[in-house]
């Protein structure tokens, strides 16, 4: 009995807790299942983008009493791993969908217009978010999501900025919500704004966040609008790499003279950003067959869906509600900035 009652040595307890706490498989399995369910929702309701369904499903499951304990306990390490590692791989594969040759065919005037929209949206949203006093890295992450490509861009920048998981999840939730609302609102504005179908497509591509949301919004005006929207959107995605590299450079400058926990200095350009650029170059060469590109697109969507499900489970609605008013003001303000600047840009190019 004395042996049974003897306290377990601290090192033994720590090792045991470490093994139990950092087992990723329950969380990774849950993330895969969540991505599969989100795919089913998308198949049943094509108007709901896959990535939107994934993050909303993650948020919902994190607040179901029966699942909340699992998500916050045994599954948390794997879900966090999915939100980081799977996101990186998905972003690399995103480069294979970037047709640089098609983007350049739009002309330098359109390239300059898109760059101006991205810069105005990023800096305008960042300034407004800081003025509103949003906590942590939320202003930076929301600015990135609005200006580039929604949740994927937020995940990419959070990797180099070392953002808190709750800040990432809250930013993804806000950007996803506003991007989803654009699917319903923007088509109603085409006629009042006097936009032809191709011009409407360019406006959608320059102002809507996620690629899936761009497709869902632009297809309402026909194939001509859809083609223009996708090309302009790809041009915005192409700016993801320089933006992430700039954030990485700023973080590296801030930490200059310091070592990271691993004993190494931060890389000037993150490996997954280099992979994204390399994938875009491979796509431009035309060496990959269509079947391989299709497989890569499917894998990219699956990985990003699993990653966003993992991020969604980190959203704590009571915490989000405490900054809900300020976040809503930032979301509306950023939406007006990106829609207004992109509309002016499209009119100037035309």
Low-confidence stretches: 1-20, 257-264
- Class inferred from helices and paired strands: mainly alpha
The whole-angstrom Rg is: 21 Å
The biggest beta sheet, please? none
Range of strand content:
under 5%
Q: Counting H and I runs of at least 4 residues, what is the number of helices?
A: 19
Mean pLDDT: 80
**Sequence of secondary-structure elements:** HHHHHHHHHHHHHHHHHHH
By DSSP, the count of extended strands is 0
Between the first and last Cα atoms, what is the distance in angstroms?
86 Å
Shape, per Cα inertia axes: globular
Helix coverage percent of residues?
over 70%
Descriptive report:
With 350 residues, the chain is mainly alpha-helical. Helices cover 77% and strands 0% of the residues. It is built from 19 helices and no strands. Helix 3 crosses helix 4, helix 9 packs parallel to helix 11 (165-189) and helix 10 packs antiparallel against helix 11. It is globular, with a radius of gyration of 21 Å. The termini are far apart.
């Amino acid at each position: 009995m004395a042996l049974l009652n003897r306290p377990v040595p601290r090192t033994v307890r720590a090792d045991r807790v470490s093994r139990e706490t950092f087992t990723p498989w329950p969380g990774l399995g849950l993330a895969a299942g969540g991505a599969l369910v989100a795919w089913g929702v998308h198949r049943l309701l094509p108007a709901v983008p896959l990535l939107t369904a994934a993050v909303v499903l993650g948020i919902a499951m994190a607040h179901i009493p029966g699942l909340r304990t699992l998500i916050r306990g045994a599954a948390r390490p794997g879900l966090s791993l999915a939100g980081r590692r799977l996101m990186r791989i998905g972003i690399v594969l995103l480069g294979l969908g970037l047709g640089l040759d098609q983007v350049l065919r739009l002309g330098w005037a359109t390239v300059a217009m898109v760059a101006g929209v991205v810069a105005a949206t990023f800096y305008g949203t960042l300034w407004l978010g800081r003025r509103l006093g949003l906590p942590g890295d939320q202003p930076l992450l929301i600015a990135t999501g609005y200006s580039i490509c929604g949740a994927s861009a937020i995940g990419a920048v959070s990797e180099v900025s070392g953002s808190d998981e709750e800040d990432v999840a809250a930013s993804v939730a806000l950007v996803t919500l506003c991007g989803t609302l654009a699917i319903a609102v923007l088509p109603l504005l085409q006629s009042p704004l006097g936009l032809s179908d191709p011009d409407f497509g360019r406006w959608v591509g320059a102002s809507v966040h996620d690629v899936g949301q761009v497709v869902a919004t632009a297809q309402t005006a026909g194939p001509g609008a859809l083609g223009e929207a996708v090309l302009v959107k790809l041009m915005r995605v192409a700016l993801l790499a320089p933006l992430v590299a700039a954030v990485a450079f700023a973080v590296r400058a801030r930490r200059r003279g310091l070592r990271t926990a691993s004993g190494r200095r931060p890389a000037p350009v993150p490996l997954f950003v280099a992979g994204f650029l390399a994938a875009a170059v491979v796509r431009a060469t035309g060496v990959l067959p269509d079947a391989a590109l299709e497989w890569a697109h499917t894998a990219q969507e699956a990985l990003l869906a699993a990653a966003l499900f993992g991020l969604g489970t980190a959203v704590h609605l009571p915490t989000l509600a405490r900054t809900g008013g300020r976040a809503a003001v930032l979301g509306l303000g950023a939406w007006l900035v990106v829609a207004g600047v992109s509309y002016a840009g499209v009119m100037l190019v035309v």
